[in-house]
Amino acid sequence: MIAIALLVAAHAAYALSDTAGLGFSFTATSSDATSATVCINGKVALNNYIGFGIATSVDSAAGMTGADLTVVYADDAGKVQLISATAAAGHAFTPVTSVKTLTAASSYTNGELTACFTRSMEANGSGSLALVNGPGGYIWSTGNIVSGSPTHHTQKGKIPNAMLFAAAAGSAASSSAAAAPTAAATASGAAAGAATSAAAGAAATTAGAAAAASKSSSAENVLVSAFAVMISALVY
Questions:
Q1: Residue 82 near residue 72, CB atoms below 8 Å
Q2: Cβ pair 198, 61 in contact under 8 A
Q3: Is residue 228 part of a domain?
Q4: Which of 47, 68, 130, 232 has the most other CB atoms within 10 Å of its CB?
């Protein structure tokens, strides 16, 4: 139970969400040092996009200009689409050739969009920025798609100094979860030791009392025997 609670808490602490309470989530995992899978999830209508970007700054100065942008949406047929882009000064949106490939985990069901794509950890293609398995600066947006192109966002936000990779959270949780049973075992061992010591002390006390009682009984028996001998001497 302790391990499960730690895992849930770690996930909650590290999963990224939009800053407007729209229910969008952004996560990434990496099985090696060269590639990653990024997933974007949220409820949007057909031809409405969720945008996610790697900013050029890790802090609150993170903005759209120069960011590595990924726009995902479901078209009229419900098929998940991805546009990779960057933005110049003035928020000019420019599609680029950054290599991002949608995976089979991508879907659009009951109004919920899930778009997962693979990409290199390093910058790969024009407008691309490297992913960081550590604190990074990110941005998000949402808006409409018209004729296959995103229009100006209707809502946007910044996510500065944040952890995108679920693997980092999982590793921390695993370490904490591993430490928890050890701590519990140590506490259990200490409790058992205390109980053993208490039991031993009680047993020693009981034994001491029994020994004292035995000695007292023996002394009484000696006195009774001596008194009997004295009575016998007087009678005879």
A1: yes
A2: no
A3: no
A4: 68
Range of the domain at 158: 2-175
CA distances from 6 to 26, 103, 170 (A): 21, 30, 10
The total domain count for the chain is 1
Question: Per residue in 150-205, pLDDT tens?
Answer: 999 999 999 999 999 974 544 444 444 444 444 444 444 444 444 444 444 444 44
Q: What is the dihedral of CA 150, 166, 14, 49, to 10 degrees?
A: 10
pLDDT digits (tens, 9 = 90+) for 73-117: 999 999 999 999 998 776 678 888 878 999 999 999 999 999 999
- Quote the tokens at residue 35: 């590639």
SS3 148: coil
| Domain-located, residue 138 | yes
CA atoms within 13 Å, Cβ hemisphere of 104: 0
